[in-house]
Design goal:
Keywords: DNA-binding, Transcription, Transcription regulation. This protein has 300 residues and is α/β, with parallel strands linked by helices. The chain has helices spanning 7-18, 21-27, 32-46, 62-81, 107-120, 138-141, 185-190, 205-212, 226-230, 248-254, 284-297; strands at 51-54, 57-60, 96-101, 125-130, 146-150, 159-166, 168-173, 193-196, 219-223, 240-244, 258-261, 270-276.
């Protein structure tokens, strides 16, 4: 079955409003003959004359009167599709935002984001979805709204926005023997260390830097959680060599007896991004949430 010309719905709506072919033609910027042809097609499709002559005027048939309200509603709904959405009012937004991330990337940002949500959008909730060992299609499948972490190979159509660059410091208990003298590559490599990896990897860029100096370090503990690893430092001689600088205020607020130090070998900063599926690119609520994430990230 052939799909009818949906422009005829608009023509029908205006014809029923005006009860005049001439006036309807003027509103649609058509000639009266073109409007008459449209009316003829409408009559054929509906199987009803729609408008009939009564003296000098046209009047709607009972069938036309029956259809008028539903036709107008359909036209209005179609117009809404092509009308830009009004700016979202976060105070009236009622939504849960699902963000896949890790404590390395989001950490302090989560706290600030929660504070901002409570003030600006009290009916919204934030759900943190941890990263898994295997990457999946959560964005494409709509199971998460946003991915916040280091830049990686996303699908070509994924939308990306840079949030910040994470720089690193080392961290150990405040009375750790490493602080007794100047921290050199040799003294740094001397102590057992923690590696943070959700994939269970013990080696990384820092090992490459040490190798150029003829040094190796001993990684005695691999943890998938950055924040949980802090508690393993308090009563041991372990050191954590790659702690994000932007999280230092957070551990200071926790009251843990830990101390940071500048790394004796260079470690590149890591770019942190937020990524989302193009399906959500123009969603007003999602746009507002992305702006909020960007604003909060700029404060660290």
């Amino acid at each position: 079955m052939a799909i009818p010309d949906l422009n005829l719905l608009i023509a029908l709506d205006i014809l029923l409003d005006e009860s005049s072919v001439t006036k309807a033609a003027e509103r649609l910027h058509l000639s009266p003959p073109a409007m008459s042809r449209a009316l003829a097609k409408i009559r054929e499709l509906i199987g009803d004359p729609v408008l009939v002559r009564s003296g000098r005027n046209l009047v709607p048939t009972p069938r036309a009167l029956e259809l008028h309200e539903s036709v107008k509603a359909l036209v209005e709904r179609a117009q809404q599709v092509f009308t830009p959405a009004d700016p979202v009012d976060p105070s009236k937004l009622n939504r849960t935002f699902y963000v896949r991330t890790n404590d390395f990337s989001f950490g302090e940002i989560v706290r600030k984001l929660n504070v901002a949500l409570q003030v600006q959008a009290p009916n919204c909730s934030l759900c943190i979805v941890p990263e898994g060992i295997m990457d999946d299609h959560a964005l494409a499948e709509g199971r998460i709204d946003l991915y916040v972490s280091r830049r990686r190979d996303f699908s070509p159509n994924t939308k990306l926005q840079q949030l910040f660059f994470a720089n690193f410091v080392g961290i150990a208990r405040e009375d750790h023997p490493i602080f007794k003298n100047e921290i050199t590559p040799e003294s740094f490599a001397k102590y057992s260390q923690i590696s943070i990896s959700r994939r269970g990897r013990a080696r990384g860029p820092i090992d490459q830097q040490l190798q150029t100096l003829g040094l190796t370090r001993h990684v005695s503990f691999v943890s998938p959680s950055l924040l949980a690893s802090l508690f393993y430092l308090v009563n041991t001689d372990l050191i954590l060599p790659t702690f994000p600088k932007h999280l230092v205020p957070m551990i200071q607020g926790m009251g843990l007896k830990l101390k940071t130090f500048e790394l004796p070998v260079p470690v590149d900063a890591v770019e942190i991004v937020q990524a989302w599926h193009p399906r959500l690119d123009s969603d007003p609520g999602h746009q507002w949430f992305r702006r909020l994430v960007k604003e909060v990230s700029a404060e660290i």
